[in-house]
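Morning!

This is the sequence you dropped in the shared folder:
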Amino acid sequence: MRSLTAEPVLDAMARPGAADLTEVGRALDRAERLRSALAQLLTAVGMNLEFSEFTGRAVEIVRDAVDADGVFLHLWDSERQMLVLTAATEGVAKGYLHRIEAQLGQGLNGLAALRQQPVVVNAAPADDPHFRSFPELNEGDYQSTAKLPLFRADRTLVGVLSLNARTPGRFGDSHLAVATELAGLFAGLIDSASTGGAVARRARMLDTLTELTASLASAGPAYEVLGSVTNAAVSAMDADLSVLVLPDPETGELAVRSVAPFRSDVLDELAALGVRPGMSVPHAEARSSQLQGYLKGDLVDRFGFMESAALAPGDDSAGFLACYRRRRFCSEDLHLLSVMAHHVGLALMDPSTRWDGRDQSCRVVFERLARGVFDDETASLASGMGLDPAKPLVLLRGRLAASATPRRDASPPDISRAVESVMSMIVSFYPGSLTYVALNQIYGLIEVADSDGDRRLLKRLGELSDRAGQRGVVLEAGVSGVVPHAVDIPRAFRESNDALVIGAKVGGSRVNHYEDLAGSMHLYRVAVDPAFDHDPTVSQLLHLLEHDRRRGTRLLPTLDVYLSSRGNGSHAAEVLGIHRNTLRQRLERITAITGLDLDSADDWLPLQLAVRIVAIRRSAAQS
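The structure's back. Tokens below.
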């Protein structure tokens, strides 16, 4: 690295006439920019930031130092012989980090790396014959670009620093002098930050593996232990999603047993394949190949990159641990993933493992009862776990997830604690019940001793849901009607599922009883029927809904209240909390947008049903 001195400035001042005051000012400005940028870069290195955080901060420092509009850092992956986008100042580009690549000589970045010298294009770089377009980076918007190769002292390629501006002729000698000086220092700083980050990461990996080993050796409930596996994988691999897949002991079919972080959209798509979350595959058409295809195909499309490791080396049928993220995995990542999977595989094969026995038996009972299988073996298993199938039962199905809009003052959501609260409530008030927990979903066959038992259960679940919400956790639950005997449990499964899934969209509450939603459920099924896509009244109301969305108005709810009031303007205005004149103006606006005749009482009932259908569609889409 060249030393930073004021020699150019002193030399210019010592020889009058060699440079005018403008040149002296430029030299001073260049020296100050360089000094400030170097100080900030060195401070960033000393902060022991994660490597991704350091590179992200570094490109911002360079951008400010050289007056660029966008700065990208492409690092050289020596294993794959590719330049990989690693850091960016532009917000849009940050979504494509580690996903945009170029070979040596490919594009202007690859050309600078191949020639080992800067490439500067100060007018319409997109017209240069070497230009390679990446629409994701909006590079077509730039009118000036400078590509500066980065090398270690031994001339080993580190990467390319890409400077971009939206005005032509931006990168003159002054800017390039600062940028070149920074580029000379950049490679060493990247090595330093990368090494420091790797050491810190290895320390975290050791801590994670130690905690994982302790968890696998514990006698905790299976959902908690298996959850610790996927949580550990997310933490250690810096992953966006981790999935643990295990074979079903009865059928041999693979089933997802744990997902971290909890992703309801992932579970919904698994359910569409016929895979019930946390349970083995109940339908013949939903085979393990479909599950693996989804995990290795659709999820990769969503997240970018996926790697998996078999719990038994070389044998995916024994189960596997998969991780997904938006940047590529390196060889060190793959080694760590294999070690974690091996730990889990050994724990599963250990005959002393205690956390999965009862849990597996409960799952088997639930699956058999859900399919209507109630033979002597199922009855024996259920009785052995304290359930009396001959007594009145309700089926509880609950699911928990971190709130999408947590309170700013709330502590981090603790889903495990919320699960424990529900389980403790069931154990305390409903002894003899059978419960099963997987993937933050709770299944419970609850014995109700009297006619009000299901209502008391609903009230207690509601209280737990409120408390969970205060801790940033969404707890939703559906309770079936009472079934007099275990042979009726398939109906209870359908009812609890409807109460959970449909109730959350139309019930106005997070905890719902099937019998309270009968009318709303019929209306929901009508609302989602594609036949209503071309209904003239629904189409008119969809225009009104779009108007509300764009303008922030509440015309559709106003129409709903007005129709519910049977055209009584005074009552509707009172319910809405607005003046009669305001109501009149809104109704006139509704008529203008939709063309509906609100003066015809004969049309109110079908119109009110159409309003409810549109409102349910909106709620379902938001859910």
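Headline: The mean pLDDT is 76.

More detail when I'm at my desk.
O.
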